C-alpha cells in the first residue's frame, strides 16, 4: 500500500510517493548481515592495545607475554609490520607545501594520541584476545601533550611529530579580489559603517553511528576479501591495494549491512589495515570489532575549529564584506580527507547572501588528539553556523529584525542562477517561499508576542527565537572542480541496468547505503522511468565484485549523482529496447512512443509491445534487428555538472530558565527545499535524523580531553547523546524548486537538517538572553554554561 502525498492521486507516480523502505523488511526481521556476526572457518579475533598516553616515545615494547596466553594465536607490534604497513592514505594535498608526517596504523616509535594503536593480539575468541592485551609490556617516555590550537602554532611549541618543523599542516587562503569573484575585503573593512566580530568554537564531536566499526578479512589467493562496516567499499578497495601493495584486482571489498556512518566510516581506518596485515601474516581470516569506548577514543572526530569571523555592513543593513579565519584541529594524523574538511565549508560562509567581498584563511594544525575527518555536513555545518550566528549578531547591532536583515541581503529567486562571492554558481532557489512558509508553520508572530510578554513580565523563563536560512553545497562534485582543489579522486558515479528475460530488473549502483533507504528511492526512479512495477526491481550495491565501479556514499551525493547515473543507464536501456520494439512492430523508431513500460505506434494504440516482451525477445534472440547484440543491459557513468544546492529556513523557539540555565526547545519548524522529492518519507527521515544531530551539537554533545590529553568522554555516560525524549516534535514542510542541473531536478537532503539546525537553536538561546547583554554562548549550551553566562552578565546580582 502506498500513500501519495506530493501529487494528486490521478497523477500518482512512484516519484513523489511516500513509500516505506523495502530494505527495512530484512533489517527488522533479524535477517541483516552485520560484519561482527559473521564467522569464517579458522577465524581469529583481534584486540588492539592502545596508548594510554597522548604523546610519548615508545622506549620498549614486548608482546611475548601475550603470545603465551591461552587461546592466543599471535601478537604483533608496530615493529612487526614496520616494512609492510605503509601509511594510511590521505586523498587531499590541499596545498603543494602541505605537511603530511605520515600515519602508521600501528605506532612504531611514538604515540600521538591517547588511543593510538600500539599492538594487536589474535586469539581464538575475542575474550582471550582482550585478556592477553594486559600482558603486553610497553614503556613510554612521555612528551608534553599538544592540546591548545593556538599554543600549538606558537614558536617553540612542542612538536607533535618529530619529522616536522611546525605543528602547522597548511595555510589555505581564499580572497574574492584575487579570485576575481568579488571586491577587496580590505576596502570593505575601511568603508564599513558597521563592523561586528565574533569568535565561535566548533567543539569536537564523535560520529555516533549505531553499529561500531567492524572488519573481517579473509586472505584469498594473492589478495584478500574484506568485509567492513564502511561507507566506501570502492575507495577502500583501491586505497587498501595502494597502501599495502596488494594488486587491486585481488582485493574484494564488501560493505554488507552497515548500521549508520554519518561520515565516521568514510575513511580508511587503521583497524582495517591492521586486520588485513594480521590475516595475511597468519593466512587465516581475522576479525576486529571495536567497543563503543574505542569508537569514542580512536575513531575520528568531527568539527573542532576556532572561527574568527568579521562582518561589515552599511547602517541600512546591506552587508559589504565577510572575513573568516579558521584554526582547524586536524588531530594527530591525516586521515582520508582530514585536511579538506574546513575547505568544504570555505565555499559556504557567504551562505545565501550577496556579499561583495569575502576573505577566508585557514590554518590546519596538528594536535595530540584523535584525528578529525568527516562528520555529517563536514565543514558546511561549521560555515552555516558562523554565517547564521553573525547575521543575528549584525541584526542585534543594527537593531533590525533578523528575518528582515536576511531578506534584505539574500539572493532573490529571480536572480538565479547566481554566482556567489566564493565562486559557486547556485542554479536555483527560492528563499522567500521557504521562509514565508516556515514563518507561518511555526507561528512566528505569536511567538514574538509571547516573547515580549515574558520580557515585560520579567518572567524567569524567557523565550528566544532563532533563525537559520541556509543553503549548502552537496552532491560532491564535478570531477574537474575536485581536481582544481587537488583532491585525489573524481566526483562521478556509475550505474548499470541488467534486464532479465522475464522483465525484472537489476540495478547495480556504485553508491553504498548505510541507512538512507537507497534501495527504495532508486527503485522508485527506475519504476517510474521504465514503467516496471516497484517490486520487480532489485538494487545491488556494496560489493566490489558485483558492483565494480563507484565512489560510494557521502556528501549527500547518492541521489543527485548516483541516482542520475541510474537515470542515464535506464535511458540507454529504453533506446536499445526502442530498436527492438520498432523491429517487432514493423514501425520506424521515430513513430514509437514509450509510456508506462510499453512502446506503441503513435496513432495506433492497439499496436504495442511491452518491455518484458522485448526483454524476452532479446533473451531468445531469434529475431533481432540486424547487427544488434542480444542484450538490453546498459551502463552509465555520470559526472555532475555542478554541486547541488538544497536550501531551507529553520526556525526555533527556546525557553531559557534564567535561574537554572535550563534550555527547552518549545517549537522547531523547518521548510526544506531539496528540489524534486523522490520519496517524501525518506526525506522526512533524513531531516529528522539530521535535526537530532544538529540540535545535539547545540545542546548536548562534546568530546572533551583533560589537560593530559586523555579523552574524558569515553563512554555514552559522559558523551551526551540525546535520545528521542530529549528532542522536540519537529514541524517539517517543503518547498520545491527543482535543480536545473540534473534531469530529475533533485537536490541532496542527507545533511540538510544537521547543517541548518545548530545555529537556529543557538540563535534562539542568545536571543532569549540578549537583554542581559549576552551575545555568545559556547556549545554545547548546557544548563551549566548558560547559567554561568547569566551569572557573569550580572543579571541575577
Ligand atoms: N531523497 C529523496 N528526494 C530528494 C533527495 C533525497 O527522496 N530530493 C532521498 C534519497 O533517495 C536517499 C535519501 O533521501 O534515500 C538521502 O539522499 P542524499 O541526500 O542523496 O544523501 P546520500 O544518500 O548520499 O546520504 C549521505 C548523507 C550523509 S552525507 C550522511 S553523513 C548521512 C545521511 O546521508 N548519514 C546517514 N543520512 C544518514 N542516514 C542514516 N540513516 N545513517 C547515516 O549514517
Automatic annotation (TrEMBL):
<dbReference type="InterPro" id="IPR000674">
    <property type="entry name" value="Ald_Oxase/Xan_DH_a/b"/>
</dbReference>
<dbReference type="InterPro" id="IPR037165">
    <property type="entry name" value="AldOxase/xan_DH_Mopterin-bd_sf"/>
</dbReference>
<keyword id="KW-0560">Oxidoreductase</keyword>
<feature type="compositionally biased region" description="Basic and acidic residues">
    <location>
        <begin position="1"/>
        <end position="13"/>
    </location>
</feature>
<keyword id="KW-0500">Molybdenum</keyword>
<dbReference type="InterPro" id="IPR016208">
    <property type="entry name" value="Ald_Oxase/xanthine_DH-like"/>
</dbReference>
<dbReference type="GO" id="GO:0016491">
    <property type="term" value="F:oxidoreductase activity"/>
</dbReference>
<protein>
    <submittedName>
        <fullName>Xanthine dehydrogenase family protein molybdopterin-binding subunit</fullName>
    </submittedName>
</protein>
<dbReference type="Pfam" id="PF20256">
    <property type="entry name" value="MoCoBD_2"/>
</dbReference>
<dbReference type="InterPro" id="IPR008274">
    <property type="entry name" value="AldOxase/xan_DH_MoCoBD1"/>
</dbReference>
<feature type="domain" description="Aldehyde oxidase/xanthine dehydrogenase a/b hammerhead">
    <location>
        <begin position="29"/>
        <end position="144"/>
    </location>
</feature>
<dbReference type="InterPro" id="IPR036856">
    <property type="entry name" value="Ald_Oxase/Xan_DH_a/b_sf"/>
</dbReference>
<dbReference type="Pfam" id="PF01315">
    <property type="entry name" value="Ald_Xan_dh_C"/>
</dbReference>
<dbReference type="InterPro" id="IPR046867">
    <property type="entry name" value="AldOxase/xan_DH_MoCoBD2"/>
</dbReference>
<feature type="region of interest" description="Disordered">
    <location>
        <begin position="1"/>
        <end position="24"/>
    </location>
</feature>
<dbReference type="Pfam" id="PF02738">
    <property type="entry name" value="MoCoBD_1"/>
</dbReference>
<dbReference type="GO" id="GO:0005506">
    <property type="term" value="F:iron ion binding"/>
</dbReference>
Amino acid at each position: 500500500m502506498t500513500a501519495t502525498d506530493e501529487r494528486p492521486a490521478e497523477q500518482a507516480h512512484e516519484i513523489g510517493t511516500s513509500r516505506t523502505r523495502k530494505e527495512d523488511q530484512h533489517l527488522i526481521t533479524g535477517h541483516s548481515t552485520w560484519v561482527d556476526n559473521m564467522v569464517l572457518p579458522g577465524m581469529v579475533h583481534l584486540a588492539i592495545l592502545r596508548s594510554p598516553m597522548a604523546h610519548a616515545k615508545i622506549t620498549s615494547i614486548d608482546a611475548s607475554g601475550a603470545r603465551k596466553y591461552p587461546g592466543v594465536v599471535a601478537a604483533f607490534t608496530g615493529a612487526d609490520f614496520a616494512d609492510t604497513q605503509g601509511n594510511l592514505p590521505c586523498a587531499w594535498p590541499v596545498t603543494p607545501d602541505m605537511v603530511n608526517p605520515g600515519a602508521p596504523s600501528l605506532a612504531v616509535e611514538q604515540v600521538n594520541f591517547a588511543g593510538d594503536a600500539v599492538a594487536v593480539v589474535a586469539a581464538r575468541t575475542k575474550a582471550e584476545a582482550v585478556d592477553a592485551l594486559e600482558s603486553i609490556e610497553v614503556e613510554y617516555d612521555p612528551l608534553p601533550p599538544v592540546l591548545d590550537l593556538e599554543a600549538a602554532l606558537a614558536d617553540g611549541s612542542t612538536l607533535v611529530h618529530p619529522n616536522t618543523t611546525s605543528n602547522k599542516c597548511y595555510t589555505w587562503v581564499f580572497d574574492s579580489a584575487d579570485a576575481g569573484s568579488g571586491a577587496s575585503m580590505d576596502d570593505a573593512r575601511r568603508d564599513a559603517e558597521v563592523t561586528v566580530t565574533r569568535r565561535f568554537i566548533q567543539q569536537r564531536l564523535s560520529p555516533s553511528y549505531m553499529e561500531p566499526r567492524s572488519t573481517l578479512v579473509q586472505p584469498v589467493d594473492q589478495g584478500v576479501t574484506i568485509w567492513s562496516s564502511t561507507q566506501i567499499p570502492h575507495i577502500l578497495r583501491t586505497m587498501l591495494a595502494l597502501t599495502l601493495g596488494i594488486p587491486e584486482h585481488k582485493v574484494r571489498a564488501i560493505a554488507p549491512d552497515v548500521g549508520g556512518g554519518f561520515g565516521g566510516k568514510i575513511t580508511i581506518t587503521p583497524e582495517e589495515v591492521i586486520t588485513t596485515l594480521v590475516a595475511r601474516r597468519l593466512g587465516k581470516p581475522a576479525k576486529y570489532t571495536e567497543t563503543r569506548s574505542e569508537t569514542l577514543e580512536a575513531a575520528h572526530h568531527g568539527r573542532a575549529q576556532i572561527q574568527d569571523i568579521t562582518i561589515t555592513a552599511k547602517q541600512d543593513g546591506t552587508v559589504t564584506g565577510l572575513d573568516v579565519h579558521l584554526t582547524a584541529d586536524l588531530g594527530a594524523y591525516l586521515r582520508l580527507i582530514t585536511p579538506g574538511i574546513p575547505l568544504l565549508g570555505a565555499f559556504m560562509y557567504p551562505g545565501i547572501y550577496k556579499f561583495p567581498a569575502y576573505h577566508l584563511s585557514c590554518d590546519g594544525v596538528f594536535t595530540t588528539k584523535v584525528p578529525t575527518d568527516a562528520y555529517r555536513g563536514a565543514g558546511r555545518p561549521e560555515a552555516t553556523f558562523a554565517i547564521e550566528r553573525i547575521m543575528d549578531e549584525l541584526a542585534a547591532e543594527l537593531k533590525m529584525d533578523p528575518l528582515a536583515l536576511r531578506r534584505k541581503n539574500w539572493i532573490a529567486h529571480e536572480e538565479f542562477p547566481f554566482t556567489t562571492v566564493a565562486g559557486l554558481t547556485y542554479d536555483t532557489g527560492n528563499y522567500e517561499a521557504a521562509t514565508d512558509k516556515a514563518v507561518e508553520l511555526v507561528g512566528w508572530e505569536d511567538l514574538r508576542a509571547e516573547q515580549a510578554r515574558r520580557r515585560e513580565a520579567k518572567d524567569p523563563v524567557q523565550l528566544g527565537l532563532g533563525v537559520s536560512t541556509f543553503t549548502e553545497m552537496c552532491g560532491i562534485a564535478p570531477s574537474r572542480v575536485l581536481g582544481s582543489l587537488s583532491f585525489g579522486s573524481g566526483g562521478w558515479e556509475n550505474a548499470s541496468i541488467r534486464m532479465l528475460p522475464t522483465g525484472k530488473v537489476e540495478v547495480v549502483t556504485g553508491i553504498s547505503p548505510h541507512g538512507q533507504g537507497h534501495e527504495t528511492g532508486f527503485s522508485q526512479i527506475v519504476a517510474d522511468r521504465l514503467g516496471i512495477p516497484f517490486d520487480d526491481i532489485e538494487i545491488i550495491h556494496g560489493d566490489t565484485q558485483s558492483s565494480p565501479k563507484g565512489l560510494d556514499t557521502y556528501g549527500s551525493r547518492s541521489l543527485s549523482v548516483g541516482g542520475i547515473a541510474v537515470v542515464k543507464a535506464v535511458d540507454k536501456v529504453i533506446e536499445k529496447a526502442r530498436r527492438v520494439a520498432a523491429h517487432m512492430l514493423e514501425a520506424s523508431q521515430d513513430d514509437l512512443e514509450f509510456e508506462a513500460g510499453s512502446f506503441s505506434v503513435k496513432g495506433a494504440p492497439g499496436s504495442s509491445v511491452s518491455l518484458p516482451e522485448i526483454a524476452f525477445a532479446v533473451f531468445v534472440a531469434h529475431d533481432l534487428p540486424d547487427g544488434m547484440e542480444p542484450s538490453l543491459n546498459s551502463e552509465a557513468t555520470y559526472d555532475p555538472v555542478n554541486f547541488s544546492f538544497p536550501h531551507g529556513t529553520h526556525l526555533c523557539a527556546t525557553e531559557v530558565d534564567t535561574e537554572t540555565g535550563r534550555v527547552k526547545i518549545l517549537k522547531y519548524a523547518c521548510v526544506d527545499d531539496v528540489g524534486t522529492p523522490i520519496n517524501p518519507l525518506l526525506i522526512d527521515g533524513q531531516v529528522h535524523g539530521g535535526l537530532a544531530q544538529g540540535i545535539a551539537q547545540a545542546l548536548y554533545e562534546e568530546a572533551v580531553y583533560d589537560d593530559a590529553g586523555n579523552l574524558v568522554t569515553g563512554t555514552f555516560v559522559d558523551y551526551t547523546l540525546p535520545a528521542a525524549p530529549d528532542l522536540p516534535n519537529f514541524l517539517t514542510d517543503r518547498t520545491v524548486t527543482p535543480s536545473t542541473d540534473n534531469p530529475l531536478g533533485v537536490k541532496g537532503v542527507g545533511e540538510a537538517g544537521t547543517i541548518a539546525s545548530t545555529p537556529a537553536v543557538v540563535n534562539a538561546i542568545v536571543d532569549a538572553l540578549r537583554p542581559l547583554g549576552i551575545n555568545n554562548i559556547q556549545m554545547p549550551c548546557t544548563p551549566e554554561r548558560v547559567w554561568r553566562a547569566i551569572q557573569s552578565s550580572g543579571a541575577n546580582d
